[in-house]
Structures are given as structure tokens and as C-alpha cells.
From TrEMBL:
It comes from the Bacteria. InterPro entries: SCO1/SenC, Thioredoxin-like_sf. Gene3D superfamilies: Glutaredoxin. This is SCO family protein. Belongs to the SCO1/2 family. It holds the Pfam family SCO1-SenC.
Length: 218
């Protein structure tokens, strides 16, 4: 059942990234009057205003000049989120060993899609379980919805029996809920533009290799 759920979430992730990328290709008129496609940047990313674990308001502008390694999830997530954040942490440790100058240019960021439960205190306690540089961001429902939309991240409140395929653990009380969400990790460049994405199945070695490839240490 766990493998099935991960496959479904990964499929959502792939669809979201592909949809965003496809809409970003620009069709222009060629010099001979015909239409041709030119290479463009994926339409992923944009302005946001959220709150960090110190209770301070931060925006996309606070990350300019650095790369964001970005993941959306929620602290009550039983498997996908902690495994993704652990992979992120281990990838950053690998990057520190192989290319420390590049590590300094990367900011790992975890944004909740569950603002009702993931307040500042909850997020602060949660991110301490992962990389010491991990930035946790929360906010109002409207703020988080705008951020998720900007980065083409799917998220939806579902009941435990839906999330777990009818086999909800007893610890989930009646009326409780889970968050179905995209499970890809995004690399956002110093100017705020999309650079790359890593699917959920990508392990620390693949993520670290991608960072070495895409991050400019200058």
C-alpha cells in the first residue's frame, strides 16, 4: 500500500512539473513567417510572502542571489515528507564534501501545505530533525495557497482512509485529515527562476549530483 501511495504522489509530481514546463515554451514567428518553438524557462516560481520559524515575514526577495532547494509538504506526513527531507539533508552533506563553495549558495526550504496545524512553533520543532540549515516556512492559508500555486504544487485535504487506501492507522481519529500533495523537490535559481526538479525517487546521490551540475559557485 505504501508503494502504491508513493507511486500515485510521484505521478502527480511529474504531471505538475511537465504541465508547468509545457506552458513555458514560447511560440514565436520565424523570419520566414512560420511558427517555431524557442527554448524558454519553465513557468514555475514567483513572488511569495510567508513566515519563518522565528515568526518573521520573508518573501522570495530574501532568497535572491542564492539557490533554493524547495520542498512542499506537512509535518504530520507519515512517510513521503520525512524521507524527502532526509534525502535533501544527506544530499547537502554530500555537496559539502564535494563542493563546499556550492553548498554555501544553496538554501534548503520546507514550506507547509497544512497551515491549520503547522504553525511557527510546530514548524520550528520539525525542521530541527533535518539539515541544520533547513528553513521552515508557514503562513496564512491564502499565503500558502499563493506560494503553492506559484510553484505549481498540487495539494488537497483528504481523509485518512483516502490517503491510506482504506487502511488508515488507528492513531487517526475520526474527522482527522491528511494532505495529498506533489512530492518533487525544486531547485530555484538566484534570480527566482526555475532551474531543475528532482522526483521523489531520486536519492541523495542523484540530488547532490544535480546540485553540483546546476549550482554556480561564483
Amino acid at each position: 500500500m505504501l508503494a502504491l501511495r508513493r507511486s500515485l504522489i510521484a505521478l502527480v509530481a511529474i504531471v505538475g512539473v511537465v504541465a508547468g514546463a509545457v506552458t513555458a515554451w514560447v511560440v514565436t514567428e520565424a523570419s520566414d513567417g512560420g511558427a517555431h518553438a524557442t527554448r524558454g524557462e519553465a513557468a514555475i516560481g514567483g513572488p511569495f510572502e510567508l513566515v519563518n520559524t522565528e515568526g518573521e515575514t520573508v518573501t522570495d526577495q530574501d532568497f535572491r542571489g542564492r539557490y533554493m532547494l524547495l520542498f512542499f509538504g506537512f509535518t504530520s506526513c507519515p512517510d513521503v515528507c520525512p524521507s524527502a527531507l532526509m534525502d535533501m539533508s544527506r544530499a547537502l552533506d554530500r555537496l559539502a564534501d564535494a563542493a563546499p563553495a556550492k553548498l554555501e549558495r544553496v538554501v534548503p526550504v520546507f514550506v507547509t501545505v497544512d497551515p491549520a496545524r503547522d504553525d511557527v512553533v510546530t514548524m520550528a520543532a520539525y525542521v530541527e530533525n533535518f539539515h541544520p540549515r533547513l528553513v521552515g516556512l508557514t503562513g496564512t492559508p491564502a499565503q500558502l495557497r499563493a506560494a503553492a500555486d506559484a510553484f505549481r504544487v498540487y495539494h488537497e485535504k483528504v481523509m485518512p482512509e483516502t490517503y491510506f487506501g482504506g487502511d488508515a492507522p488507528e492513531r487517526h481519529e475520526k474527522g482527522d485529515y491528511m494532505m495529498a500533495h506533489s512530492a518533487y523537490m525544486l531547485l530555484i535559481g538566484p534570480s527566482g527562476g526555475y532551474v531543475a526538479n528532482f522526483k521523489h525517487e531520486a536519492g541523495p546521490a542523484e540530488i547532490a549530483a544535480g546540485l553540483r551540475e546546476h549550482v554556480d559557485a561564483s
